[in-house]
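Usage

Read records sequentially. Each one opens with the input sequence:
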Amino acid sequence: MSSFVSRPLLVRSVSILGGAIGFYLPLSVVPLFNPRSAGPATVALLVATVAGELGTPRLVARAGYRRALTIGLTLLGVPTIFLLLGSAPALILAVSVVRGLGFAICTVAGGALTATLVPPDRRGEGLAFIGLVSGVAGLLALPAGVWAAGRWGFAPVFVVTTVATLATLVSVPALPGHPHSAPVLPGHADSARGTGVLAGLRHPALTRPAALFATSTAAVGVLVTYLPLAGAGRPGWIVALALLLQPAAATVARWIAGRLGDRHGLRRLLLPGLLAGAAGMAALAWTGSVPMVLGGAAVFGAGFGILQNTTLTLMYAEAPAGTEDTVSAVWNIAYDLGMAAGAFVAGLVVTSIGYRWTFLLAAAAMLPALGLRAAPAAPAAPESVARPESGYRRHSTIASAGRSKT
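and closes with the structure output:
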């Protein structure tokens, strides 16, 4: 069995760290910076991210991985410093939009590059390792931002976000520059590199896991936007610790899911991931109970981590080798569109039904995804994409239902 840790993967971890800090450190701070812009800011960030993800595969094809990551990290880090100018809603929305575009490039281009650096037979563990890097960054950055803003004010958070994100640019020149030419997804005749995102969005082997994952990311959008506001009248350490426990549990669960999935199949992990996520989100509804808030954050995080690793690995297993940018884009669109939808819908109802019922609604919204767990029937590959070269289902032992990795 090949090792999944290589020098390029370790170098790639540096830019992953920068992207995670750039995204998570101010994520729950901006709603506190101007509570009236809490929902709109999160939605603007994530809608811009989805828009950017649609175009990133074409950017990667033209500019390569290194230039794309450089652009992404710059757009993610630099705008945050402009929040020092004030908390006007228009400024916050503009910064959120630009940061969303940068985050889109970082996640799609970086995710595609990461997938090429991991041996296919260790992809579950390799993605879990990368999840560990980004998870630790999010684990520390999300609550640290809230804590630091409460202790020292908002300005240090915005400055550190910009500096830390841009500092990781030093690692980018050591990464591979250009992707190899890629085949198309089975059932699609798109000749563009990486098949194109729109083709991927029409492929059920990608859209079913992505849609399932989106239900859990919608709950994340509710959690990161409204948990700080729901706990505003209580000691600050409660929300900070909850925001620490959620990514900590997700990181551990993602690692465990990767190891189990590579050996025993990933689809069987979808049910416990969904149920744990829904149960944890429901527990957060009791915002007046410290054990329920902290326990709910941890249980939700565990379910979310399972679904993170499981859905992404399933999608890579079903797609041809060389279409990693399309898979990364579709999965990240589900991630960010789900978060945006969760924050948007919660913003519409929270003033009328309150935080408790908003969290319960987010939990209930995850349950219909149970119907998406079954594998869709695979379309036949076109003759122009021969199976040995395309890699379609070549790595299905990584994550297919009822099989163990050999």
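Summary fields computed downstream for this record:
- The two ends are 9 Å apart (CA to CA).
- Residues 60 and 68 are 6 Å apart (CA to CA).
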